Amino acid sequence: MQKKIIALAVAGLVSGAAFAQSNVTVYGVADIGYNYATSDGNKYSGLQDGGDVGLQGSRIGFRGEEALGNGLKAIFTVEFGLNLSEGQGAGFNNHRQTFVGLSGKFGSVTLGRQYAPSGSWLGGTSSNSVTSVNISNYLIGQFRTLQTGNGSRWNNSIAYESPNYSGFQFRGIYAFHPDTQNQVRDSFGDASNDGSRLGLAVKYANGPLYLTAIYQAVLDDDAASTGMVGDGSNKAWAIGGSYDFKVVKLFANYIREKDDYWSFDLKKTYFSLGVGIPVSAAGSVQIEAAQYKTDIDETKSRGLSIGYQHALSKRTTVYTYLTRLSNQDNIGASINRNQAQVGANGENQTGFAVGLNHKF
Question: Of 122, 31, 36, 30, which is closest to residue 321 (Cα–Cα)?
Fold first, then answer.
């Protein structure tokens, strides 16, 4: 009897040790705010989820790892978007990230729906890397492949991220035929015409200095599936960085994209300058100016955002932002993305937001 008890105790310890090697974390964000937007007499007023007018899109996620021995780990992330204003999943954003992979001394290799470099590394070059109401998020949304929001999460992708070498890291990602129409037609994922994507990036983050350089491309996309007469390819480059002087933090970035989706080569450029100014132990002011331009008659869209964030605790933040967007000619960027756009092409827009963000 004593031997049986000892054996059961040993088995329990072994099982407990194996369980201890597997770690799962539940996390999330609850963010909602009031938004007021106006343009040439058209107005919108109401509550919207943080993904449209706040610091972050609401979400719930599960991430974990299991030690496999010799420094090798199995890792996974499953993350779902939420919409607090409507009490439901946030459409296509409902599946934010869903991937599994392996990590070790070599870095990590992951497979599934995951961030391209523009989604994971470009944020460090903006005065507010997460806020949806910052002008940079509206204007970067005009690019076809190099985006920071939902467009930066790529389906059917395999990614590699290197270890950190004294601040330097490399990330590469390839996404197979992400377009649903092309998946049906090109079930074998022929990258010559199915819209597959490629992303390569390097970053340096050490002390007060942050730098990154990013290249992303949509490979040739068969025009027959899009109804356009271009070959569908797209190439984009971005460089940017920040430096923290403690009393003020400076940010800057530049993006250039060559889009052959149309019957002509459409070239787009973007740049932004921003500052973050701590005004107390819990509060900070963010200011950012940005410009987006195409080579069609040099049309431009310019904007300025001024915001304030105050941390009530390590997990809870109140915020307010005011954004002014000046569109020119056929440019139609909008500061109200979830509801009906308040501005038509060429119309100027003003938006105001105040809200609450809580992390758990």
Answer: 36
Neighbours of 7 (CB within 10 A): 10
DSSP 306-347: EEEEEESSSSEEEEEEEEEEEE-TT----S--SS--S--TT-
Tally of helices (H runs) and strands (E runs) in the chain: 6, 18
Between CA 337 and CA 260 the distance in angstroms is: 25
This prediction has a pTM of 0.83
Q: Which H helix or E strand runs over 82?
A: strand 72-83
Q: What is the largest CA-CA distance in the chain?
A: 89
Query: Residue 175 CA to chain centroid, in angstroms?
Result: 16
Cβ atoms of residues 279 and 285 within 8 Å: yes
* Sequence-ordered list of residues with C-beta below 8 angstroms from that of 278, at least 6 positions apart, any chain: 246, 247, 284
CA distances from 318 to 31, 40, 54, 287 (A): 10, 30, 10, 17
**Residue linked to tokens 């971005």:** 238
Quick one: the chain helix, strand, coil %, rounded to 5? 15, 55, 30
For the chain (360 residues), the mean pLDDT of every run of 10, in chain order, is 41 41 88 88 84 88 96 96 78 75 98 94 83 78 80 92 97 80 47 75 97 91 47 84 97 91 75 96 95 81 93 97 80 53 68 94
CA angle 20, 22, 28 (to 5 degrees): 115
Q: How far is CA 103 from the centre of its chain?
A: 22
Using alpha carbons, select from 252, 301, 303, 309 the residue that is nearest to residue 275: 252
Angle CA(164)–CA(166)–CA(167) in degrees, nearest 5?
Answer: 65
Dist CA 37 CA 337 (whole Å)? 11
DSSP state letters, 168-193: EEEEEEEE----HHHHHH-TT--TTT
- Class of domain 37-359 as given by CATH: mainly beta
Can you tell me the distance from the alpha carbon of 259 to that of 101, in angstroms, rounded to the nearest whole number?
32
